[in-house]
């Protein structure tokens, strides 16, 4: 038996639709942001839920409870004797999935055989043509029918690559940072204001064509144009931080990105 490990809400739901004979373990939390720590620890789980409770606007108690349940399932699996079985980790080249994969590897026993499906490379081999090359930002954007052929491209993880991933996880944890981005093809800790210049740049471009800017429009532009996948909640959080620091002024309500209208300060 082998367990498929995936990261994110959307791919968790998609894998259920496939009805695989093997179990699927999904960590739905986005590890590209927020505090990291011992994945077996309830304290880490609660630290992350508390962090998300500050970032999410409006408050989403059902989502936070879903995160708790996801962490509990992963923790139970990592604690269980079955974790010595074969593991297949699905990972696209984005900060959330790469961080999640290194975290899982750091908490699995070294006796557990692990294979990796590099989703970007596997998808290109199976689905791309000379005329069409796809840009896959995260595994969850792939439609269900396109996933099964990727399973033939699972590659056993070498000891060297495994030790490197584990070391990377420990570096990320020890950094104490709350944001992770891909820098020089590696996941690295970044300051929480890493996205701020990009957000301001997108706002400036939009405000050249309109007098005021709805926050939800700015969030959408940032999600569409930033080369690395991120979340709408994270972008709106940074917009609120930019309001607090005086970069933006606003009218309307900060409780909803649809009801918040932005101006650059001084304009």
TrEMBL record:
Secretion signal span: none
Domain DUF3658: 152-259
Residue ranges of every copy of the DUF1835 domain listed in the record: 4-109
Transmembrane segments: none
Highest taxon listed in the record's lineage: Bacteria
A Pfam family assignment: DUF1835
Name the record gives this protein: DUF1835 domain-containing protein
Lineage, highest ranks first: Bacteria, Bacillati, Bacillota, Clostridia, Eubacteriales
